[in-house]
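Aim 2 progress update. The chain analyzed this quarter is reproduced below.
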Amino acid sequence: MKALLTGASLALGLLSGTALSGGLAHGAETPPAPAMRPDQTAFRELYKELVETNTTLSSGNCTLAAERMANRLKTAGFAEADLHPFTADGHPKEGGLVAVLHGTDPKARPMLLLAHIDVVEAKREDWVRDPFTLIEEGGYFYARGASDDKAQAAVWVDTLVRFKTSGFKPRRDVKLALTCGEETASAFNGAGYLATHERALIDAAFALNEGAGGRLDAEGKPVVFNVQAGEKFPQDYRLEVTNPGGHSSRPTKDNAIYHLAGGLTRISQYEFPYASTDASRTYFARMGAITPGPMGAAMIAFSKDPTDTQAATTLSQDPGLNGMVHTTCVATMLEAGHATNALPQRARANVNCRIFPGTSAEEVRATLQKLVDDPKITVTTLGARSEVSKTPPPLTPEIMKPIETVAAKMWPGVPIIPILQPGGTDGAFLTPVGIPTYGVSGLFGDPDGNGVHGLNERIRTASLYRGRDFMYDLVKIYAMQK
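Predicted structure tokens:
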């Protein structure tokens, strides 16, 4: 999971100790009491096994993690025929699992629970604690993947185990997909593989995934509950200039580095047109209502009129919110020259864009080519991570009502706010092939992001157990939906 601290993090900074103290400060996510329910004890063992199975790309094994989760489903009573492990040629350690709990109504379209089980790299010498040993300390679980994304993956497996062992009979099929490769752009991606090679196996009316969660204030009190409905499309472009070069003692204006620098400068000064979706407008309307000052006013104004350039400009001044109001492109890498005493024969730059739904990668490439305004610079689209979704997942009552019902019982008064995710998740592979994918978890995180992708990743124990209860109740409602 990437870049989840979006506009919500700004709002937390504005709200902590101000508006929240007046009415939105509901029951803090404090550490759980020492006594645990038996079902929580069983879940903790499953979670521990998954977290402690190293699934980094460099030295881990997603296939082993998937096998261990399949064994837990077998023990719960799942038949072999309903468990579908998968790997791709050349990627023996990057496998995954699809499991199916069959419903009673063959006409009801299935639902899908999606989670990635790979994690970001972690070096023991950099961490306070062993990143691949689950440690419970001071009201937190610490480990690589403790939050991203093994918390939700473990809850999905646990939910199917509980359904099976309790004899629950869903109306629709409930499917589970555990995949590898989400955290590394160059890796084999299990969600992409399923979308292109096993589309029928994961067919569903919709999917639930990572991509959003709750946010706590500095005192551990719930502030906002986010639901992801759509995400921007990440795309890299190569800008390149070639030149005959020559000796540095005979410089000319026709210099590859100068050409490239000029083009990058022109790109840096350009703002893509402001845009919005149902999710982003709803986000700004609801966040604006609880965000004080000019930023809150700009949120409300933009939600009412996305053509309000003054409001959009105000929002774009914040790095988190900027990604929610339009396509963004930024230079991320440079490479030029071949010798200190030679004119450069080649200069290259990578420009990383996050494309708003409804805009194609080619449209952005053409815009960049026009912006550089230099025939010496070629702009090339590099390999795409996934297809571009033409429209974001719709926020229908069938999707939102169950979320609102369960969340209101667990976190009364906490606003439920959809977001357009500026970062990327594996939902990017499913939504374009007709499986609208929503980020929803009930897992509440600290304002600092809980060390996700960084050092000493953690999640509050209370947040994990309450999120688990939320997801179980939510899936049960969806599973019986007509």
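The two ends are 32 Å apart (CA to CA). Residues 461-479 form the longest helix (19 residues). These observations will guide the mutagenesis experiments scheduled for the next reporting period.
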